[in-house]
Amino acid sequence: MRLGVNIDHIAVLKAARKIGDPDVLQAVFVAAQNDADQITIHLREDRRHIDDYDAKRIVANSPIAVNMECAFETIDAVLKLRPFRATLVPEKREEVTTEGGLDVEGGFARVKRTIERLKEAEIAVSLFIEPNKAAVDLAQRGGADAIELHTGRFSNIWAALYGNLARTPYAANDLVALSVEDLQKELVAEISKIKKAALFARELGLQVAAGHGLNYHNAREIASIKEIEELNIGQSIVARSVWTGFAAAVREMSELVKNAR
User: Fold this and answer.
1) Which of 131, 164, 174, 191 could be stapled to 197 by a disulfide with Cβ–Cβ 3.0 to 4.6 Å?
2) How much is the pLDDT for 172?
3) d(CA 57, CA 81)
4) pLDDT attached to residue 175
5) Is pLDDT at 56 greater than 50 in this prediction?
6) Domain with 165 in it
7) Which of 9, 69, 150, 190 is catalytic?
8) Three-class SS state of 213
9) For the chain, what is the mean pLDDT?
10) Mean per-residue pLDDT for 161-166?
């Protein structure tokens, strides 16, 4: 199991005051020294956290692989930077964070062309998709090397069932009214979807990652799925680092996911 540490939220802290501190490049080295296998960053169209300056420094200096999440609108920048991998994600300006998987079916021609451009530049390509066989099949047909399964719904159900999310302003509206029994059924169904999608992807020869909303409470459940080779986790690690320090937060997550099987 590989751990990709997403450092976007360190860049959020830097952007809050625009004074260059904390330095996201330092976060790369700390993560690498504490058993992270990959650095994940999202170069958004509006550059709300990672910007071109930091993306260039990270790709040029990271001692471990860099996975750059990007939408179609930032592909030209990614082609210039040439990270180890590009992960195509959907993106909306009004969203706080990525809200779902890429619509591969609706934009298949565009996805396929973009994959071809990236692979011509010798950049590995992954698609961030919903955990269903149709999306997995299209990813393989489009020429992707890998997929990353969106675990957002799994994470929301888990939080509603085992956390206090339902009593906060951040509750997922469609889950608030469900009983404990119904939430348990929803969780079992979502985990089953993720497992089936991961197995199907491996059968098609795709590498399989997963991410979104994973934290120290729920990541073990996804890490235990043998077909999943990589988890990309960011916000919860940076949030934990407020109390423990970034090095300890990365090390704790790495131990958690790598000992899940």
Assistant:
1) 131
2) 65
3) 10
4) 82
5) yes
6) 2-258
7) 69
8) coil
9) 93
10) 78
Distance CA 74, CA 224 (A): 34
Distance CA 47, CA 77 (A): 12
Contact yes or no for 18/65 (Cβ under 8 A): no
The answer, yes or no, to whether residue 185 has pLDDT greater than 60, is yes
Closest CA relative to residue 40, chosen from 247, 233, 236, 198: 233
Indicate the SS3 state at residue 164.
coil
42 is catalytic: yes
The answer on pLDDT for 177 being more than 90 is no
The span from the CA of 103 to the CA of 123, in Å, is 21
Residue 61 CA to residue 41 CA, distance in Å, equals: 14
Of residues 128 and 261, more confidence is placed in 128
Asked whether the beta carbons of 222 and 6 are under 8 A apart, the reply is no
Q: Give pLDDT tens digits for 80-118.
A: 999 999 999 996 554 445 568 999 999 999 999 999 999
Name the band, by pLDDT with cuts 50, 70 and 90, for residue 48. confident
Task: Tell me which of 9, 49, 150, 212 is the catalytic residue.
Answer: 212
161 vs 205: CA distance, rounded Å = 34
Catalytic residue among 42, 91, 190, 227: 42
Number of separate domains in the chain = 1
Q: What's the whole-model pTM score? A: 0.93
DSSP assignment of 75-143, as one string? HHHHHHH--SEEEE----TT-SS--S---TTTTHHHHHHHHHHHHHTT-EEEEEE-SSHHHHHHHHHHT
Write the CATH number for 167: 3.20.20.70
